[in-house]
């Protein structure tokens, strides 16, 4: 007996910001699982900025989405049928067959989740790839130390809020850039961030950062790129580090936007610039989970979430990432 599945497929490769005309919500029949297969009913879906890069048909660190095929992304769900020896009906699992309500899997990339330790959606955020990204960027790439000044762009986003909190736990002075007064208050009042830049209100981000962090910046965690990267370079202390995690400011660009005009400062200030991909550091997952899991259990880390309701809202949630609609992790609850 087949099941009816709904999911989002990519119909055209977007130019600039994706539009509803680039995607469609489609239905199809899901066959019964064969030996070695299982069916998962998704409860939570993750939408993330990196997915915009998968909508471009070029070679990258993750394959691009194929036209006419369901898109993929992080999801947490429950096994509802199984002929797989490692998974039983009722198991809660983490996997990458998101953007849909039901998924047929051969078990590849499916991880069984412990129950009762944390809300299931946490494994898409603070205890998942989002949290690992922040942890790796600060610990393995940036090697943040107590007493240093950390500047975070996109500081109220999923990765940004984690970077801010981990930075404070390490004893750093943390400066965050945000797009609204409400997000700024959240960072200072709830997360203990030391200083905030409301970038939409500033004529010069370089001057704004100099004002908020006159001592200079030792480590810049970049989620935005563009003017934020240029401002950071101009305010870095000698031998500072720039950890390049994302550049959401450029993801919907036509490719003609100029880069920072002050790159020679990298030489003069002897700066270290390194990009990274969290999935290159999966060997660190246990160390990350132990540290962050304990901090979460002790209330030292907050798991802020912005939740859209229903599969039909998934594309709207995705677009919201580019307009600043989220504080913390953007999720879709099915």
From TrEMBL:
Q: What is this protein called?
A: Enoyl reductase (ER) domain-containing protein
Q: Which domain of life is it from?
A: Bacteria
Q: Which GO terms describe its molecular function?
A: oxidoreductase activity, acting on the CH-CH group of donors, NAD or NADP as acceptor
| Coiled coil regions, renumbered to chain | none
Q: Which SUPFAM superfamilies match?
A: GroES-like, NAD(P)-binding Rossmann-fold domains
Enoyl reductase (ER) domain mapped to chain residues:
18-332
Q: Does the keyword Ion transport apply?
A: no
The cross-references to InterPro entries, in alphabetical order and at most eight, read: ADH-like_C, ADH_N_2, ER, GroES-like_sf, MDR_fam, NAD(P)-bd_dom_sf
Q: Name one Pfam family in it.
A: ADH_N_2
Q: What is the lineage of its organism?
A: Bacteria, Pseudomonadati, Pseudomonadota, Gammaproteobacteria, Alteromonadales
| Source organism (scientific name) | Ferrimonas marina
Query: Which keywords fit this entry according to its UniProt record?
Result: Oxidoreductase
């Amino acid at each position: 007996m087949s099941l009816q599945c709904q999911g989002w497929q990519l119909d055209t490769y977007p130019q600039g910001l994706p539009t509803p005309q680039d995607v469609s919500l489609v239905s199809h029949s899901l066959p019964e699982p064969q030996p070695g297969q299982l069916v998962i009913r998704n409860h939570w879906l993750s939408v993330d900025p990196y997915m915009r890069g998968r909508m471009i048909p070029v070679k990258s660190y993750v394959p691009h989405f194929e036209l006419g095929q369901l898109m993929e992304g992080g999801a947490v769900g429950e096994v509802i049928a199984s002929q797989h020896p490692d998974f039983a009906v009722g198991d809660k699992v983490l996997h990458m067959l998101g953007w849909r309500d039901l998924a047929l899997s051969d078990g590849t990339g499916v991880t069984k989740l412990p129950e009762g330790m944390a809300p299931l959606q946490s494994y898409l955020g603070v205890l998942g790839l989002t949290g690992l990204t922040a942890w790796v960027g600060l610990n393995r790439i940036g090697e943040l130390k107590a007493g240093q000044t950390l500047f975070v762009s996109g500081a109220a986003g999923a990765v940004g809020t984690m970077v801010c909190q981990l930075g404070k736990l390490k004893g750093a002075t943390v400066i965050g850039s945000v797009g609204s007064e409400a997000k700024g208050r959240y960072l200072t009042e709830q997360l203990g961030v030391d200083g905030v830049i409301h970038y939409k209100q500033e004529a010069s981000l370089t001057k704004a950062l100099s004002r908020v962090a006159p001592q200079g910046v030792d480590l810049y965690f970049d989620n935005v790129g563009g003017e934020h990267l240029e401002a950071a370079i101009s305010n870095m202390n000698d031998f500072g580090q720039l950890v390049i995690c994302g550049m959401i400011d450029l993801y919907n660009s036509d490719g003609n936007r100029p880069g920072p005009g002050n790159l020679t400062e990298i030489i003069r200030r002897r700066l270290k610039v390194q990009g990274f991909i969290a999935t290159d550091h999966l060997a660190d997952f246990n160390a990350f989970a132990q540290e962050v899991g304990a901090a979460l259990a002790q209330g030292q880390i907050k798991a802020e979430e912005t939740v859209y309701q229903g599969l039909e809202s998934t594309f709207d949630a995705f677009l919201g990432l580019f307009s600043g609609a989220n504080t913390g992790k953007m999720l879709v609850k099915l």
